[in-house]
Amino acid sequence: MQLHDFSSVVLQYKVVCFDAYGVLKNHKGIIPGVQNTIHFLQQHNIDFYILTNDASRSPQQLADGYQQRGIPEITANKMISSGMMAWEFLRDKVDHGTVAYLGTSRSAHYVEDAGLKTVSIRDLDIDHADSINALVLLDDEGFNWETDLNKAVNLLRARNIPVIVANSDYTYPTSRNQVAIAVGGLADMLEKLVGKTFIRFGKPDSQMFTFAYNHIRQEQEIRKRDILMVGDTLRTDILGGNKFGIDTVLVLTGNTLSLKAQQMIERTGIIPDYICQSVVI
Amino acid sequence: MQLHDFSSVVLQYKVVCFDAYGVLKNHKGIIPGVQNTIHFLQQHNIDFYILTNDASRSPQQLADGYQQRGIPEITANKMISSGMMAWEFLRDKVDHGTVAYLGTSRSAHYVEDAGLKTVSIRDLDIDHADSINALVLLDDEGFNWETDLNKAVNLLRARNIPVIVANSDYTYPTSRNQVAIAVGGLADMLEKLVGKTFIRFGKPDSQMFTFAYNHIRQEQEIRKRDILMVGDTLRTDILGGNKFGIDTVLVLTGNTLSLKAQQMIERTGIIPDYICQSVVI
Amino acid sequence: MQLHDFSSVVLQYKVVCFDAYGVLKNHKGIIPGVQNTIHFLQQHNIDFYILTNDASRSPQQLADGYQQRGIPEITANKMISSGMMAWEFLRDKVDHGTVAYLGTSRSAHYVEDAGLKTVSIRDLDIDHADSINALVLLDDEGFNWETDLNKAVNLLRARNIPVIVANSDYTYPTSRNQVAIAVGGLADMLEKLVGKTFIRFGKPDSQMFTFAYNHIRQEQEIRKRDILMVGDTLRTDILGGNKFGIDTVLVLTGNTLSLKAQQMIERTGIIPDYICQSVVI
Amino acid sequence: MQLHDFSSVVLQYKVVCFDAYGVLKNHKGIIPGVQNTIHFLQQHNIDFYILTNDASRSPQQLADGYQQRGIPEITANKMISSGMMAWEFLRDKVDHGTVAYLGTSRSAHYVEDAGLKTVSIRDLDIDHADSINALVLLDDEGFNWETDLNKAVNLLRARNIPVIVANSDYTYPTSRNQVAIAVGGLADMLEKLVGKTFIRFGKPDSQMFTFAYNHIRQEQEIRKRDILMVGDTLRTDILGGNKFGIDTVLVLTGNTLSLKAQQMIERTGIIPDYICQSVVI
Q1: Chain C residues within an 8 Å CB radius of D181
Q2: pLDDT at A250 over 90
Q3: Percent of chain A with pLDDT over 70
Q4: Nearest C-alpha in C relative to D189
Q5: Chain C: nearest CA to D102, how far in angstroms?
Q6: pLDDT for the residue C95
Q7: Are B229 and B247 a contacting pair, CB within 8 Å?
């Protein structure tokens, strides 16, 4: 397995898209040295964006997290989240009524911003659910898993409504060795139990890459070959970037451990263009 | 869809195996008329057993439930549960150490009866899990879904141990229109998240039918053609009975609604030998 | 199930995207009356495109089929095929070497147009496959299923290369009651057997809708709410259109039979905005 | 990864069940030294059986293959095949009419021995299929994959009949580095395409282990702890043996390569009691 130096790779591109968790951040906070990488990009006129499967916070709140930790360059307009994809869908396809959601009240931001009324599954009276026109899975927190997952199953048996999964990750790291089940993992279980087809947003789906591409092209003329995707997860970041037709870097600071990277690439057939230890320069 | 009268069907057999939930019981208790059916069987010297995907109670406790509701003929030796299959596995293949479990402390009976120490996932210290030699999924109650399902995922990342699913049902009815997620549904999610192969007991797996068959043959000479399986669920009762080579009756008092029975049989290709409205005679 | 008149629906939009098979064509050829529908659209200044999961022919060859059957208005620039998505991927991500393919030599057009050398799996010597840099599944015809599917499995065991599925349909109709397995069905089997993740193009993937959208916007200013997707298949046309945020019409002239449409919508949870008997006006 | 000597392991048991392919045989024929192992077992009064996912030949024909290659001790009554399970099912549950099959005419033996008429899918007229009461998948040879798999799909769309898979293996080795798709792999594709639930026989299903156990107990009193299963495949031999409650040995002469054995055990969570290089003593 050949490791490349991130600085030599990144200098070949005009725009870099970073995954957030496992690339810029980990369970302890910002990965040391990331600030330096951002400065390096700016010095070399390389633009950057953050593509994150996160629907738990608004773009502004996501950016605030970086700014409060010493990286003022990461502003809300640099953030492209799977929650924004869900917001577009709700705006375009669910034009009235109330949307039920699984997640924190903070995550309901995306639904309310689309002009829709919201009700947490926690507060839903399943016997009076006739006005519910969609169910959105936003976050793994903010509800009681036992009572509210059961309530979601019964809602979907009673009402034939679209179900939107705003984050298709299965798990996320909570410490060096441990993970937690993400809302995408809960979504898979619910989908199988009710036998319906949910609508998933977030990497590897190309819709998020397309959104980023169109966003970037409003600022500058760019070709796909000038964009680099940097991620820690083969199944989302690398598969999604490859499929969209841009070059990809796997970093070893998150989900894919150094010792298992080569083995996982061979097993899955998901092949990054480069492997770097981290984005630290 | 041709409906048969249960009494005319059952008179062709020497032994009847009933599923419990949706056949003899529902969310309100014993289905009215079931007591009469049991008497009918006794009058005609037809033996009976109850094959249930239930690991939440011991056979004695399961039988007590019927006896307290007016059917003294249903004794512990009539009960054949998926929990008993799990108990056999633990006895034969996990001969020392501690077994972690998801379920109520009552359901841990099966593990303790196999001579093993138990610890509820609820009480497990994940950082001191070296003595855990198996994980058993017994019941959907008795633990906190959010904290304890996450703990189970991390246990299976840290320890390569067998995982036993003692009830492979996905859901169970809680009222006329509503269901709850069963431990088999949670098991499917965990299995996918950790990427390992769990060991499942309970219908449709033939191990439970074989256990019943051997059990019955200790009492009387019997051929498979003399045994009838009666159930409300195509995927478990009917598929399992068919595969084991015995005749099957679908009843419409549980999971399979009258209006959808024909459609579900055509869609799944799981074909009962008979359809009866109920076991009531 | 409420049926709408196609003409009254289509007048609300500026652009219509049609699926081909089951909507404009069937096993007998062009569906009678489709020519009239095309004229109706032109009279009302409604633009149209054809979005087809077809990689067996070039856009020009696809258009020729309509022109020879009396619809000269369907020209190559109206055709948007999953093969064009595969072509983009190959151009951007597989920049040298030889691409092996399953399909007719005609279908290899998409690969050769991307500037790559091709070899049919039929002609591949599996012991000299070191120069093969990708495998593309284009069509279910043009090879021997037994020998060449086995050869594909062994190629993917020997070489860790990207696999591109240029048509994700499972089956296609060959007569009023019969279907044939499409290359997307074969792809699913190969993917499971080798345990790798293939890259799929074609509806319901949003990449094809995005391509169409960008294509349309080169000709005119348009919003998503002005585009209508018309298809006969819930899993591809309707799911893909819904997810992309445009309105959808299910027609009953193809995969989804009148008698089963309502039942399939309820079972899958894939809900079209309208149902029309056909596109005939 | 600790390797055990096969002779020291086997001496702890009274009966050994061998998988055939990858354990006793490989693509070149009988593995050198296997004859010696059989003699060793006989000297120590250890009985043996062969449990094979093979429905392409009768038990007698399977045994003939060993006898002609110099192991006269392997007689027909030592062979327990998945084809025998299919035969039992057909005898018990499909009592009249004609059974269509995918496989060689030789493999149709199991169906004909159950007293049923057979027709190869190859010879079936799909428009006159009203008398077909079951479809059995026996072997990957003896039919044209393209025309006859398509015919099987259309048969299952026209007739709601049970489908029996008499060999659930996905692939089998054809040379040191290459494999071929087995009928179990084709079965998975057909099952997904038609959306029905097939009935699978063969390891890891416990029905085959139960059959062996009952067969052995007709000859001698035996407990499960006295039986050892020896196989080269985690997913079938080891999972099946573990679940049935008997001890298991993984050998490295077939599907599971030495270099990857530990990694595959960790990844799948299917844990053999012992690992031996081979059965050669």
Answers
A1: 149-150, 153, 189, 193
A2: yes
A3: 100
A4: C189
A5: 13
A6: 78
A7: yes
**Per the structure block, which two tokens stand in for A68?**
């409060």
Q: Is the pLDDT of residue A257 over 90?
A: no
Q: Residues of A with CB below 8 A from C246's CB? A: 92
B151: nearest Cα among B110, B120, B114: B120
Extended beta strands in C208-273, E state: 227-231, 247-251
CB contact under 8 A, A149 and B181: yes
User: Hey, are the CB atoms on C242 and A199 less than 8 Å from each other?
Assistant: yes
Q: Give the side-chain half-sphere CA count within 13 A for A25.
A: 20
Which chains sit next to A, with 3 or more Cβ pairs under 8 A? B, C
Show contacts of A71-77: CB within 8 Å, 24+ apart.
A71/A30, A71/A34, A71/A35, A71/A38, A73/A38, A73/A39, A73/A42, A74/A38, A74/A50
User: Residue A105: is it exposed, middle or buried by C-beta count within 10 angstroms (0-12/13-18/19+)?
Assistant: middle
Q: Which of D161, D245, D268 lies nearest to residue B196, judging by beta carbons?
A: D268
What does the alpha-carbon distance between residue C116 and residue D271 come to, in Å, rounded to a whole number? 46
Please say if the pLDDT value at position C259 is more than 90. no
Quote the pLDDT of residue C97: 86
Write out pLDDT tens, residues A42-83.
999 999 999 999 999 999 999 999 999 999 999 999 999 999
Chain segment D38-85, per-residue pLDDT in tens = 999 999 999 999 999 999 999 999 999 999 999 999 999 999 999 999
Cα separations in angstroms, B147 against A140, A146, C138: 11, 11, 47
Select the residue of B153, B154, B185 nearest A189 (Cβ to Cβ): B185
Nearest CA of chain D to the CA of B270: how many Å?
A: 7
Helix (H) or strand (E) holding A83: helix A82-93
Per the structure block, which two tokens stand in for A187?
A: 């979504």
Residues of B in contact with A146 (CB under 8 A): 140, 144-145
Assess contact for C99 and C124: CB atoms under 8 A: no
Q: Yes or no: say if A39 and A7 are a contact pair by the CB < 8 Å rule.
A: no
For testing the chain A interface, which of C210, C271, C274 should be mutated: the one with the most A CBs within 10 Å? Answer: C210
Q: With 90 as the cut, is the pLDDT of residue C71 above it?
A: yes
- Give the rounded distance of the alpha carbon of B176 from its chain centre: 20
pTM of the model: 0.95
Bridge-based pairing state of the strands A25-26 and A29-30: antiparallel
Is residue A95 predicted with pLDDT exceeding 90?
no
Residue C204: asked if its preceding bond is cis (omega within 30°), the reply is: yes
Question: Structure tokens of B276?
Answer: 């009866």
Helices (H), chain D: 6-10, 34-43, 59-68, 82-93, 109-113, 145-158, 183-194, 206-219, 239-244, 258-268
Chain B partners within 8 Å of D88 (Cβ): 245
Strands, sheet with A227-231, edge to edge from the N-terminal-most edge strand: A79-81, A47-52, A15-18, A227-231, A247-251, A274-276
Question: What is the torsion angle, in degrees rounded to the nearest 10, for the CA atoms of residue C135, residue C141, residue C147 and residue C148?
Answer: 0
Q: Between β-strands C163-165 and C199-200, what pairing exists: parallel, antiparallel or unpaired?
A: parallel
Q: What's the pLDDT at B95?
A: 78
Chain C contact probe: residue of A207, A225, A270, A271 with most C CBs at under 10 A = A207
- Can you give the pLDDT at residue A258? 87
pLDDT at res. C225: 94
Question: What is the average per-residue pLDDT within A115-125?
Answer: 96
Instruction: Enter the tokens of residue B222.
Output: 């019997």
Interchain contact, C150 vs D193, CB within 8 Å: no
> From the CA of D177, how many Å to the nearest CA of chain B?
26
CB pairs under 8 A between A and B: 66
Q: Which amino acid is at D24?
A: L
CA D167 to chain centre: 6
